[in-house]
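Changelog-linked ticket: iron/sulfur cluster example.
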Amino acid sequence: MASGLKQQIARKARREGASLVGFAPVERWAEFAETPEAFYPQHVFPFAQTVVVMAVPIFIPVLDTTPSIVYSELYNTTNRILDEMAYRLAVFINNKGFRAVSFPRDGYGDISVLIKRPEAAFSHVLAARYAGLGTIGFNHTLLTREYGPRVRLVSVLTDAVVPPDAMVEKDLCIHCQLCRKCCPTQALADTGHPIAAMNKQQCASYHKILKDEHRYPCGACIKVCPVGADRQLYGQNTSKYLREKNALDKNPNDPTYADWIHIRTFGSINSNDK
Ligand code: SF4
Ligand code: SF4
């Protein structure tokens, strides 16, 4: 009965456009105790027994152009799709006779809020880890086998109890530190811990600048990550990523980056406009 319901929910999620779907029992938040209790799903919505997490991918060639309006639009598109998917899935579960609500993709009004308080009321990343979609990388994002960190996530909290998905045991992060080396604000620091010490205010402040320039978000730390089967489609050009900042500081028209420069030239404010 419960596994039949799980299959129906998973099928519906995929029909709505989810590329990945996972189920986390709320007990996992207390089991791992990685966030304050107020952020546990059963505190956010006290009826919650299960969190259904859905993911959609971000295309590497578009992300490669960041910061650009083209990536910004893709980011907005994924957010819109995720919120609609989660809303429809919650209604679907309601119609089966269970309580269910979608938690919004981006739970903040403006990036300036994140500079003061860089958290949302609920973490989709942690939920995705507990739902078996992946592990948390050095760059603080969810790494998946399929798309590395290039996924956007959303959650549905429900009182339906279904068999949980197994969590991913093996750390998917290979600790190459490319994300740290390519971060334009040096917001990620290596303190010997598997996950970087992150200066969230520094990251958020940079995002405020990009937002004002209509080329938000940054995403460099997910762009360069070599993890993910999506690399088989598009390849991985580590040296191009590593040399990008210095090369463009020296020559803003460096021909190696002509394709990215072209896209960055239009539709948003960039260094040539200042
Ligand atoms: S989003 Fe950009 S600024 Fe923030 S940590 Fe990642 S690379 Fe650094
Ligand atoms: S770029 Fe390397 S260190 Fe950073 S998250 Fe990906 S695998 Fe981990």
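Closing comment: Example verified and attached. The first strand starts at residue 20 and ends at 25. The beta strands are 20-25, 50-57, 100-103, 135-136, 142-143, 151-158, 188-189, 197-198.
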